Amino acid sequence: LLVETTELRVRGDSPELLKEKEHLLAQVEKLHEVNPMLGHRGCRLGITYPEVYEMQMYAIFNAASRLARDGYTPRPEIEIPLTISLAEMAMLKERCDRIAKECMEAHKVTFPYLCGSMIELPRAALLAGEIAEAAEFFSFGTNDLTQTCFGFSRDDAEGKFLPIYINQHILKDNPFAVLDRKGVGRLMQIAIEEGRKTRPDLMIGICGEHGGDPSSVEFCHQAGLDLVSCSPYRIPIARLAAAQAALKYPRKK
Q: CA-to-CA distance for 180 and 168, rounded, in angstroms?
């Protein structure tokens, strides 16, 4: 019955619907990539296909506007991933501001919001001072930053050569589990320093698996980060590690 129903539905498609399906299939084939990890994703997709990000921004700001209309105080934060330049960030920040304004005017409300950048690539870390001219906060995507800093594929390295590297003491730890302070950490420190030169009140955090690792949380505290995020199951570990780091390395008020 399922087969017959499917055949009838396909056989009953109008020429316009068939043409649309063919167009969608052509787009899928066009977007196929040999190495999507370094390909057409993140803000690159939002720039080449503006409707993707605009749809998401409208959804967020419409929801926030309805909450504000009902008496709540939403504080949405729009995070632009995989940025490499001020030009990218400024373009998408302008789009974000325009959509936020349109939604607030439509609902006759106002509320605070931020538009920031994910720092996931070495170039972004090195040019953080420029990116901070448009970005209102940073969030280090440490999974991708580790991949691009080491040139390791997380999906492949962990099951192939990383155990050998650790056993032979080439690496002390799996860099996808414990933040690499010498390389990835150095890029983070550059980004923090340069970003806050441009925007002293820049809020900075990390997201990814490292947010639940005690050693990584300690480094983030020492580096001056404001927050970490991690999976729900690792929140107790992260909170304990943050408390221990605060006692061990108290910050100046």
A: 17
